Amino acid sequence: MWMSSLVALSLLAVLASAADQKLSSIATMLADHSASLAFSLYHNMAKDKGTENILISPVVVASSLGVVALGGKASTASQVKTVLRADHLKDEQLHAGLSELMSQVSDAKTRNTTWKISNCLYGPSSVAFADAFINLKDKKNAVNSINEWAAKSTGGKLPEVTKDVPNADGAMVINAMFFKPHWDEKFHEKMVDNRSFMVTRSFTMGILMMHRTGLYDFHKDTENRVFVLDMPLGQKQASMIFIMPFSLEPLERLEKLLTREQLDAWLGKMENRAVAISMPKVSIEVSHNLQKHLADLGLTEAVDKAKADLSNISGRKDLYLSNLFHASALELDSQGNPYDARIFSSDKIRNPKLFYVDHPFIFLVKDNKSKALLYIGRIVRPNGEKIRDEL
Ligand SMILES: *[C@@H]1O[C@H](CO)[C@@H](O)[C@H](O)[C@H]1NC(C)=O
Ligand SMILES: *[C@@H]1O[C@H](CO)[C@@H](O)[C@H](O)[C@H]1NC(C)=O
Ligand SMILES: *[C@@H]1O[C@H](CO)[C@@H](O)[C@H](O)[C@H]1NC(C)=O
Ligand SMILES: *[C@@H]1O[C@H](CO)[C@@H](O)[C@H](O)[C@H]1NC(C)=O
After folding, report:
1. 82 with 68: CB under 8 angstroms?
2. Among 184, 265, 300, 304, which is most buried by a count of CB atoms within 10 Å?
3. Ligand 3 within 6 A of CB of 234
4. Whose CA is nearest to atom 9 of ligand 4?
């Protein structure tokens, strides 16, 4: 999973298929703590005015932090554990727990969902890395090789991780992912048409929209003017949860409400009922440099050239974490399992609630069993054609 030849890093290699194994208590705890970290990270990132779409995989962030811990020594390593609230764990427990969690939630065979995850650790040319590390001989070369690697490892879905490599004198962790939900009940391929998605009141994009009516867990929070919808994936091993304001508005108001407690409160009020869903059939590609955001959340040493001790990577003390690129492509498509059409002749499907996704929304992909978050994010601007722009 990690491109590197460090003996210790191989601890993170995928364990034997974790099909229906019960998660250990350590992996369960790490799932929980990475979900908490996810909300802090989301809020920290949402503060940046230039950020539109957000796409973070909390479990992959946790696993990358695990690699930093593994490469770190002394307080550089212990601080990583603090960020993961895993101070009490021994190194081996942390790595085994993260490895177990990742292999469980990303097992494509049992989950019937496409999730390609590739990770890589890059180092500066000054550091004597083992062969498998790609060294940053020059910046242009580095940018090209990173982007080529990401495109290749995602089957072309993620063509670009970065345009630049700031601070090429440090180590870089890079995550390149492609996620495509496979719905528990598919959308009909033919029920797709051209509609518009309002980015703002004056800016509309032309997108493809897919439609389906079915029974879903749904909640209409009238007080907060928000819809919450749970769409199961695969064989219900995970769900994509949509949180959308009643009508177009900047997401700030909703984001102020967004805590784990509020999410649990919403999920606790869900009602299984008929919902007519219109969902953009779109893809987005997002790349974030998490280095600064993780520093804001307490990872101050690994990112500080003067303080970092990542000598377990290079054997020398002059290495620090200069970038943590976290890049994902997400594709919302009609594909999924066939559904039982008999439902359409039943009374249950009458008077569906409308869930019409034509304006920005927040979403999470949550593992049903471990409660780990595979993703948290927002779509503010899908790919599409600009059809109206009134200034
Ligand atoms: C999901 O299951 C269906 C039906 O078994 C299969 O055709 C499809 O290839 C699977 N998709 C993934 C991503 O595993
Ligand atoms: C959507 O619009 C585009 C361009 O106008 C057109 O080429 C395409 O066939 C339309 N698709 C559907 C499903 O109507
Ligand atoms: C979680 O899994 C159980 C057992 O398969 C299923 O009954 C339940 O509906 C799932 N929950 C969600 C939210 O998909
Ligand atoms: C990394 O740390 C482990 C445990 O402290 C140690 O056994 C190993 O030799 C270290 N590796 C390097 C390259 O310093």
Report:
1. no
2. 184
3. no
4. 312
Q: Hey, what amino acid is at 8?
A: A
CB of 111 closer than 8 Å to CB of 382: no
For residue 246, the SS3 value is coil
Q: Please report the pLDDT score of residue 169 as a whole number.
A: 83
Instruction: Write out the two tokens for 53.
Output: 């779409």
- Ligand 4 pocket by C-beta < 6 Å: which residues? 311-312, 315
**For residue 279, how far is its CA from the centre of ligand 4 (angstroms)?**
50
DSSP-assigned letters across all residues of 125-146? TTS---TTSPEESSHHHHHHHH
- pTM here? 0.90
The pLDDT assigned to 133 comes to 46
- Nearest C-alpha to atom 14 of ligand 4 is from which residue? 312
Q: Which residues of the chain have pLDDT under 50?
A: 1-18, 130-133
Report whether residue 264 contacts ligand 2, using a CB cutoff of 6 Å: no
* 229, 362 contact by CB (below 8 A): no
pLDDT, tens digit (0-9, with 9 covering 90-100), for 123-172: 776 555 544 445 556 778 888 888 999 999 999 999 999 999 888 888 88
Best mutation site among 17, 112, 116, 184 for ligand 1, i.e. most ligand atoms within 8 A of its Cβ? 112
Beta-carbon contacts of 345 under 8 Å, excluding residues fewer than 6 positions away, are none
Beta carbons of 182 and 335 less than 8 angstroms apart: yes
Query: pLDDT (tens digit, 9 = 90+) per residue, 208-242?
Result: 999 999 999 999 999 999 999 999 999 999 999 99
- Run of H or E including 193: strand 192-200
**How many other C-beta atoms can be found within 10 angstroms of the C-beta atom of residue 352?**
17
